[in-house]
Design goal:
The N and C termini lie far apart (49 Å). Helix 2 crosses helix 3 (48-63). The longest helix has 16 residues, at 48-63. By secondary structure, the protein is an alpha+beta fold. It has a domain at 9-129: Gcn5-related N-acetyltransferase (GNAT) (Aminopeptidase). The protein has a 7-stranded mixed beta sheet, with helices on both faces. 33% of the residues lie in helices and 33% in strands. A hairpin with a 5-residue loop joins strand 6 (151-161) and strand 7 (167-176). It is globular. The structure holds coenzyme A. Coenzyme A binds at residues 33, 38, 40, 101-103, 108-114, 134, 136, 138, 140-141, 143-144.
């Protein structure tokens, strides 16, 4: 009988070097989400090379202290990721913005996004933030944010496009932390 390896899902805060070390997995999660039709800034055909360039810029921003980055890792595999933009204009030093909450399709429905958000909120508070904002075009994400105590401001119709070019609404949320 063969042995079965069981890995725990670990939520890790990443420094710039960690982002580089996990580059392939992070870029893979982003490409998988765009392929799955998620409205996360990018359009159909988004490639692994483009996603790698995106996460290289994230590594630089983390190094400069402008963003916090997190990954959910099981064994060697990156299952999901989220970032908090902490560099804000001088009149909003207390605000952070959650962005790119992404979980690979095969890993959804296991609480990965909730754990990433818990970690991101805690780290944002430690970084001195007292209010977080975000926008989303995902119904699943909307339910998650509502469960986690986020306040729904409202939806802006035709705010952006789905990867296939269809216009879609975006909903704004905020949370005092
Ligand atoms: C939105 C997104 C991040 C959610 O990720 P996820 O890891 O599947 O989220 P969770 O597992 O925490 O919650 C998803 C569902 O699984 C359920 N769930 C969580 N743990 C579970 C478990 N152990 N057993 C059964 N169900 C579970 C949750 O209750 C939730 O149910 P609901 O959809 O009926 O409300 C993911 O769908 C995604 O990456 N979408 C594409 C990118 C995107 O649009 N991101 C949002 C940008 S703001």
């Amino acid at each position: 009988m063969g042995a079965t390896l069981v890995f725990m899902i670990e939520i890790r805060q990443l420094d710039g070097n960690d982002v580089w070390a996990q580059m392939e997995g992070l870029a893979g999660v982003l490409v998988d989400c765009v392929e799955g039709g998620a409205s996360v800034n990018f359009m159909q055909g988004y490639s692994l090379d483009e996603a790698t360039l995106f996460f290289e810029s994230v590594a630089d921003a983390v190094d400069r202290g402008e963003r916090l980055a997190f990954a959910a890792i099981e064994g060697e595999e990156v299952l999901g990721t989220v970032q908090v933009i902490v560099k804000m204009p001088p009149n909003q030093p207390h605000r952070g913005e959650v962005t790119k909450l992404l979980v690979r399709r095969a890993a959804r429905g296991r609480g990965v996004a909730q754990r990433l958000m818990e970690e991101a909120e805690t780290a944002a508070r430690v970084a001195g933030k007292s209010v977080l904002t975000l926008d989303t075009a995902s119904d699943t994400a909307e339910r998650l944010y509502a469960r986690m105590g986020w306040n729904r401001v409202g939806a802006i119709p035709e705010f952006c496009l789905l990867p296939d070019g269809t216009p879609c609404a975006t909903t704004i949320f905020w949370k005092a932390i």
